[in-house]
Design brief:
8 helices, Rossmann fold
């Protein structure tokens, strides 16, 4: 069975833009079911990023501890390997601006779990190594990285639309 490690933006953009629970609540039931059966997970650091904003997505996560994987020695070793593999990988997280702090953990957890990364990020076309993104690091580390649309295709998630009066 393939396992998927989901990035923070999978949830934030999906919740706020593409699959809002206001019109696509069944999608979030599917995500919950996939977490319960072990098909998907999020690193604890992703959960921390989601918890920073007091909104309905944070509320949705309240009883979803089964989705969250903690950092263990294997994940820490994978993170060390990620940083030692390529000097540019240090720029994956931006500690100064406090952004993307979970990104290195997404890749490290995927390495440790032999999981496929799911993110809304795209590879950077910049020559500036300080602009590295999750797909760039995944490519460097030979980890498969897909977007949420490919994730939906692979898991054969189907949407049904109805008009409610």
């Amino acid at each position: 069975m393939e396992v998927y490690c989901l990035d923070t933006n999978f949830f934030i953009e999906g919740w706020n833009k593409y699959y809002s629970p206001n019109f696509c609540s069944d999608y979030w039931d599917v995500i919950k079911d996939l977490g319960e059966n072990g098909t998907i997970f999020v690193p604890h650091e992703v959960k921390k990023e989601i918890d920073k904003v007091d909104d309905s997505l944070k509320e949705w996560f309240v009883d979803k501890d089964f989705l969250v994987k903690q950092i263990d020695a294997n994940v820490q070793n994978c993170l060390k390997q990620l940083y030692s593999n390529n000097k540019a990988h240090q720029y994956l997280a931006n500690n100064i601006k406090g952004r993307s702090l979970a990104d290195p953990w997404v890749v490290a957890h995927a390495m440790a779990e032999k999981a496929i990364v799911v993110t809304k990020e795209f590879s950077t076309s910049s020559k500036d190594q300080r602009k590295v993104k999750i797909p760039d690091v995944c490519r460097n580390m030979n980890i498969e990285c897909i977007d949420d649309f490919e994730f939906i295709r692979r898991l054969n998630i189907r949407f049904k639309c109805v008009t409610e009066n």
